[in-house]
């Protein structure tokens, strides 16, 4: 029996060693001048201001004995900063990021969305259908004038109203310096 299995294994391995593959030609190189220009980067807070907003949000929640995660996103939803206070759960950071993304996608603070989903079934269904979204209070938009350039979201505090208060504290400290 061992001899038969060995012969089968050798036969199988031997047959694959002789298998032919058709070489795939690489696409012709496109000259740099013929390529489409890269899209401009998304607007967002400068990294130093995003970091300051996030650390201020953490400080505001720490003063309330709350361990949180905070995310600052640019206008395209890219993470500029994701921080968690010492002892915060992973869920807090994920929640803060989801709230920031939700505020950005719907162009409203999540506290407003939290109220709207109570009476707007289509909105509630849309948010519930996407696991990356969270419509509980805790995220606010970052604006320069009327233009939305990002969002800041906080998660993990006991009470989403506390999350949002900490997000607002972070935004307020940098708002006047945003460009």
What do these coordinates show?
This protein has 179 residues and is of the alpha+beta class. The protein has one domain (47-177): 2-Layer Sandwich (Beta-Lactamase), CATH 3.30.450.150. The chain has 6 helices and 4 strands, in the order ααββαααββα. The chain has helices spanning 2-17, 47-62, 90-106, 110-116, 121-128, 160-174, and strands at residues 69-74, 79-84, 139-144, 147-155. Strands 2-1-4-3 form a 4-stranded antiparallel beta sheet. The model is unreliable at 1-20 (pLDDT under 50).
Compact summary:
Helices cover 44% and strands 15% of the residues.
Keywords:
179 residues, alpha+beta, four-stranded antiparallel beta sheet, 6 helices, 44% helix, globular
N-to-C SSE string, H for helix and E for strand: HHEEHHHEEH
Estimate the strand proportion.
Answer: 15-25%
By CATH, the architecture is named 2-Layer Sandwich
Physical arrangement of strands within the biggest beta sheet = 2-1-4-3
Mean pLDDT: 88
Secondary structure topology:
Blueprint: H1 2-17, H2 47-62, E1 69-74, E2 79-84, H3 90-106, H4 110-116, H5 121-128, E3 139-144, E4 147-155, H6 160-174
């Amino acid at each position: 029996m061992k001899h038969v299995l060995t012969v089968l294994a050798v036969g199988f391995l031997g047959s694959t060693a002789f298998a032919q593959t058709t070489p795939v030609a690489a696409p012709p190189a496109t000259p740099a001048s013929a390529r489409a220009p890269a899209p401009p980067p998304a607007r967002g807070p400068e990294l130093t201001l995003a970091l300051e907003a996030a650390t201020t949000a953490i400080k505001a929640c720490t003063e309330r004995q709350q361990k949180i995660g905070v995310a600052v996103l640019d206008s395209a939803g890219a993470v500029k900063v994701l921080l968690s206070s010492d002892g915060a759960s992973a869920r807090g950071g994920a929640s803060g990021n989801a709230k920031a993304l939700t505020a950005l996608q719907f162009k409203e603070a999540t506290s407003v969305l939290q109220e709207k989903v109570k009476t707007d079934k289509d909105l509630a269904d849309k948010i519930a259908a996407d696991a990356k979204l969270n419509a509980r209070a805790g995220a606010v938009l970052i604006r320069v004038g009327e233009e939305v350039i990002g969002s800041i979201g906080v998660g993990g505090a006991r009470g989403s109203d506390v999350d949002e208060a900490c997000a607002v504290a972070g935004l307020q400290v940098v708002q006047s310096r945003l460009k």
